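dude i think i finally got it to work??
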Amino acid sequence: MQALLDRSRYGEALEVLLELAVIWVAVYLVFRFLRGTRGAGVIKGFLLITIVLALLVRVLGDATDSFQRLRFLFDRAFNLLAILLIVVFQPEIRTAFSRIGRTKLFTRTKPESAALAAEIGEAAEFLSKNRFGALIVIEKQIGIGDLLRGGVELDAKPSAALVQSVFWPNSPLHDLALVIRGGRIWGAGVQLPLAEDTESQGSHLGSRHRAAIGVTEESDCVVVVVSEETGLIRIAEGGELSAPIAREALAGELLERLSRASAIVDDVVAGARAAIKTKDAPKAGDA
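look at this
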């Protein structure tokens, strides 16, 4: 009997430890995601006020029969916490789900990515040496068609010469973005949304860098940015801006990022095609 009690207590203790570990991991991931955003300060202040009010209401309400109405109101208001969090942190939640959707479990290098990375690398090296500003957006799996309004459609094969000519000074299209989708240059002169919160990545960022961060916050595209002031080359992806990249290393870095395409989708499509071919193939006994 005593042995059964000991096992039961051991199981309860293990369950408590497991629950605490799960809660700690969840809280850590939330704070890590919010770190460096405007939501970090909001949630800290919100938690501080909530803890203070909860302690006051619980202590005063449990110790005496007073403050029962206040305690009742606090209990009901606390049930609205989830709705309030959704409203307050709507931009952060949207960004979080977008990042989850961009998660790649497996990677596969596509042949056309190497040629595209080489052309952009050559163009960016020329633009960087001459300090010509550039903003090159490469669309991957999550389309940005809703943002491609007002641009000039080109539908051309990517080449270093064409990219250089687009961003040549005094060109009508050099101030805005060039978009590559489906392995071809869709167009240029595209106005992109600017990121609202860039304090964690530097307050000195110009409109090109803010636009690069903004378009990658809600899509999985890769953006190459060349600074007009310094000639430095950076890559934006997942709402984050990389450190300056050496000119000769850009093609390799870009190829690595473009190759992070989910192989699961390709495998499912290939499997479906194989199943259709097998189903439509004539059987051995057919005439």
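The two ends are 76 Å apart (CA to CA).
im so relieved honestly
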